[in-house]
Write a structure and sequence with these properties.
Layout: H1 2-31, H2 42-62, H3 86-99
């Protein structure tokens, strides 16, 4: 009768050890990164994200399209100097008189 109790105790100890091994495996699985054990450098990930965002922004800037209004043609004649208006001449004369 005493041997049956020792066997039951040994079976119980074996069951507890099995459960402890299972708990350790679950704990290890939870504490490791989920991506198949790969660890990622956060700085590398941020740099890659910034590169992708910049590429998207560059593409958006290149795809602006053409304006819907027709622009005037480029002048072909040489520019002519504008003649001063009489009011401007009067102001310049007043300024020159004031300065002297």
């Amino acid at each position: 009768c005493n041997m049956k109790d020792v066997d039951k105790v040994q079976d119980l100890v074996d069951d507890v050890q099995d459960q402890m091994e299972m708990v350790n495996e679950v704990s290890d699985a939870i504490s490791n990164p989920a991506a198949f054990g790969q660890q990622f450098d956060e700085d590398d990930l941020m740099a890659e994200l910034e590169d992708l965002e910049q590429e998207e922004l560059d593409q958006q800037l290149l795809d602006v399209g053409t304006p819907g209004v027709e622009l005037p043609s480029v002048p072909t004649a040489a520019p002519v100097a504008a003649k001063p208006v009489a009011a401007d001449e009067d102001e310049l004369a007043d300024l020159a008189a004031w300065a002297s």
